[in-house]
């Protein structure tokens, strides 16, 4: 199976699983559930679910288990996007090529959509019959909670908001992005692996090294594309970082140095996968998918 075939098949599985784990519009409150489905379904690159599925292949994770984990990750990610786009944060009107939730509905509905998706992520992780053993449900719930809380994604967003108009050092910028973006990407890799046969400490450490490289590469690439790509390609408003006077890798080290950093992080990701040999192929291909966007 080629990487493209694997990716298309995995994305189809993720979409079907998300349909299953999201409440239907025939369930009250119908408008809230409609807005949740609007935010989640039919769009996005699904990087976190793809990483989760690829890591799960290393530990023989069952189909139901990896689908539950990947859905939880995507719902947590989308909640963050819905809130990030609101007027009190980045105030954006476009996400995944369509109007943001607060534009399509209203601010109050967008706030509730984010709140409900965060809760629904944990519903998916603890649902009866999702293929995860009790101990795995507890472990994955902890991973997701830590990655999305004040020492993870939410904390990174807080640093981001505090940094508008400031000149951050490169280490400060890296800390912000390892929390805001990298924490949930790291959780995606760990959750995929922990949903199957228990990985050894050495293998889990190697996956952490891989995830650290990929997580930072993802943000560096995002900073580059914000400058070099148009809104149609991004699916969100281009040039927002500069418009909002946000510190980025491009603003701190320049465009070419940022490209070189992304490529080096891709190499670091490949190197971290060495203990897995050919079994790490999908994770390596996903690293390439992320980095090659800037070429």
TrEMBL record:
<dbReference type="Pfam" id="PF00348">
    <property type="entry name" value="polyprenyl_synt"/>
</dbReference>
<protein>
    <submittedName>
        <fullName>Geranylgeranyl pyrophosphate synthetase</fullName>
        <ecNumber>2.5.1.10</ecNumber>
    </submittedName>
</protein>
<keyword id="KW-0808">Transferase</keyword>
<dbReference type="InterPro" id="IPR008949">
    <property type="entry name" value="Isoprenoid_synthase_dom_sf"/>
</dbReference>
<keyword id="KW-0414">Isoprene biosynthesis</keyword>
<dbReference type="InterPro" id="IPR033749">
    <property type="entry name" value="Polyprenyl_synt_CS"/>
</dbReference>
<dbReference type="InterPro" id="IPR053378">
    <property type="entry name" value="Prenyl_diphosphate_synthase"/>
</dbReference>
<dbReference type="GO" id="GO:0004337">
    <property type="term" value="F:(2E,6E)-farnesyl diphosphate synthase activity"/>
</dbReference>
<comment type="similarity">
    <text>Belongs to the FPP/GGPP synthase family.</text>
</comment>
<keyword id="KW-0460">Magnesium</keyword>
<keyword id="KW-0479">Metal-binding</keyword>
<dbReference type="InterPro" id="IPR000092">
    <property type="entry name" value="Polyprenyl_synt"/>
</dbReference>
């Amino acid at each position: 199976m080629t990487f493209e075939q694997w990716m298309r098949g995995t994305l189809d599985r993720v979409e079907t699983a998300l349909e299953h784990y999201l409440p239907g519009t025939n369930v009250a409150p119908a408008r809230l559930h409609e807005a949740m489905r609007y935010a989640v379904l039919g769009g996005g690159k699904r990087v976190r679910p793809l990483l989760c599925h690829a890591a799960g292949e290393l530990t023989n994770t069952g189909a139901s288990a990896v689908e539950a984990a990947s859905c939880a990750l995507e719902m947590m990610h989308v909640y963050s996007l819905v809130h990030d786009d609101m007027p009190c944060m980045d105030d954006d009107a476009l996400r995944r090529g369509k109007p943001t939730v607060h534009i399509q509905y209203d601010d109050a509905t967008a706030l509730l959509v984010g709140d409900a998706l965060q809760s629904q992520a944990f519903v998916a992780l603890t649902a009866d019959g999702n293929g995860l053993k009790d101990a795995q449900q507890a472990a994955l719930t902890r991973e997701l909670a830590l990655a999305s809380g004040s020492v993870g994604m939410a904390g990174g967003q807080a640093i981001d908001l505090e940094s508008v108009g400031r000149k951050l050092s490169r280490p400060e910028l890296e800390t912000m992005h390892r929390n805001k973006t990298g924490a949930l990407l790291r959780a995606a890799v760990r959750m995929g692996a922990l949903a199957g046969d228990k990985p050894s400490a050495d293998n889990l450490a190697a996956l952490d090294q891989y995830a650290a490289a990929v997580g930072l590469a993802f943000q560096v690439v995002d900073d580059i594309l914000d400058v070099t790509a148009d809104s149609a390609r991004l699916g969100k408003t281009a040039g927002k970082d500069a418009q909002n006077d946000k510190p980025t890798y491009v603003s701190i080290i320049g465009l070419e140095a940022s490209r070189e950093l992304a490529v080096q992080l891709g190499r670091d990701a490949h190197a971290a996968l060495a203990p897995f040999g050919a079994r790490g192929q999908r994770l390596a291909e996903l690293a390439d998918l992320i980095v090659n966007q800037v070429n």
